[in-house]
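Moderator note: this is an archived Q&A kept for reference. The question asked for a predicted structure of one protein chain; the sequence and the answer are reproduced below.
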Amino acid sequence: MSSGTDDRWVVLAAWGFGARFIALTFFISFASISSQVLALVGKRGVTPVRDVLARAKEDFPSLRDRLCLFPTVLWWTGSSDFSLLGVVGLGMLSSAALFVGCAGSTFGSMALMLTSQVCLLSLDVGLDLSYPWDCLLYEAGWLALFLPHSLPLWEGTIGLSDHVEPFLSGLFRWLMFRVMIGFGKIKFQGHSPRDNGYIQGFLIFQPIPSVFGWLGNKLPLMFHKVALLGMFVIEMVAPFMLFFPGPPRAIAGVLFISLMIGIQLCGNFGHFNVLTIGLSVPFIFDQSSMFETTMGNPRNAALYLYALCVVFPCSLCHLPFNSWVCQSWPWWPSMDPRVFKNDFLKHTVAYVRMCSPFRFCHAYGVFESRPSPTVRYVPVVQGSIDGGKTWREYEYKFAAMKETSPPVFVAPHHPRLDHQLLYEAFGYDVVSCATLLHSTSSRLPYRFTRNTAMERLCFRLMEKNSACVSLFRFNPFQREGVSPNRTRIVLYALEPCSMDERSAGVVEGGVPRYWHRRYVHAHSSIKRPEESPFQYSIVSGKGWLENGALFFHPDSCILRDATVAGTTLQTKIDSCDWSDRDGAKHLDTLLKDLCGVSDVSPLWKWIQCLQKMPANNLSVRTVEATKLLSLADSFDCV
């Protein structure tokens, strides 16, 4: 066999490895979701997706509009628990078939990958799959549509049926460049020498530390400084090496893999490491240039069209941002097309906003390299069956919460409740974005609610045979066979024991101690069953989604103006004779109907807050808001 043939076989095998790892990651993601989907977004879950879709259908009656804003097959299949499990199951089957090589043809491979992608995209409206590894999987999935099909594993090969177009290989390198540079730029921007010990505290502070993370925290400070220097090289230097064929690109691929192995050993970040390793392996062996591609077949033409119309314009616009805001920034009030005076910017942002619900491209980067104390704050859910006299704790499956909770390996599984505890402890509700920080990270207006996800979880636990109990390792009331009549959340601080304390510190039952635990404060008020937001009907306009479109977060003005209520109000404002008191009264009645309440004073208060915002955050409806304030004054509503 010639050397050229050997090289071609190696490249095909490397890309076959990468393609199968993309399929494997889809399967892992669906398998991870399958055990949590009903407790999180099912009929009796924390954030019932059926209520979200029902509200969206009221606000956006047109199916075309709903598909463009909230793309999901649940619009046709319904949002029952059976439908949710069916979508997850179909995604698992299609991704498993891709992994073993059942496609049989490039068209079959494209159909299976598209099925997996559509299934995962359909779950986004409920689960809000916005973690960096979710974003990376979406992007890799769209690019994988253009890969040749994988040969069957039972033929004894892992390779692809044909070579990968150099232009497609270049797009994968561009994706990995943006991922690494994204994490690097937010980590090292503004970095100073006093931040060099960042990794030592982060190994404990991170969402779910592993046993090596717990042990690594005790290594000398110099080790952590050297590790941070290595991260700088990998995240800020190696990405540029991807654009140089030969040893530089191969070294970059090896460095990326080594970083992912280190992260996998020290922490638990979903399927991020598995997917990134799969995407990095081809870089070691494929030394092609993306400019070698020709327009020889329709697939290549479609690839060029996708890259030029979607990948490059959207990814370049996302590049300055980070993972926190990658889905929300196109929807900020300052990004409204009517704000821009420059037509090019106006149309560019509008185009990115149109593409964003389909998750084609994202921004990356999460944690800054700022030293944090070697302590973790954990919100602990407690319940009581005697009216609050005594309290028992619900034990999380993986997150440390007791002195004896051992650090664990759980990735590539992603326990979404356990992972969000880090953010919940600091008042940032990742799941529902219920606080005023909603517009920072979420584009979904129905995430801005009266109750946070953790509070809704407390209410769900008081229901009989609650599905949410499955999110925990231990139900303290299982022996009695009852549900609590009171729940609350208490914040505790966990500090790691020293190695000597670890050896000597054994608590009841001979279980070793890993943490020192101390009480911080009550994280929530005491919840009672009669206060549950789930006891009201969504049809009646009351419940956890009790407010209409006019009560979206103030920064959600673009989506609010697109709803039926928003367009109707705008039309009435434009047509109302403000010098005629009867006309103003008619508008006031309309507002009451749109708000679903008899008192519209909350709306006037919202308008007042809107006018007090800085100029660059003002809604584009400031003029109308001023008119409404005048109307409110005339009726003494403010």
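Archived answer notes: Residues 72 and 121 are 6 Å apart (CA to CA).
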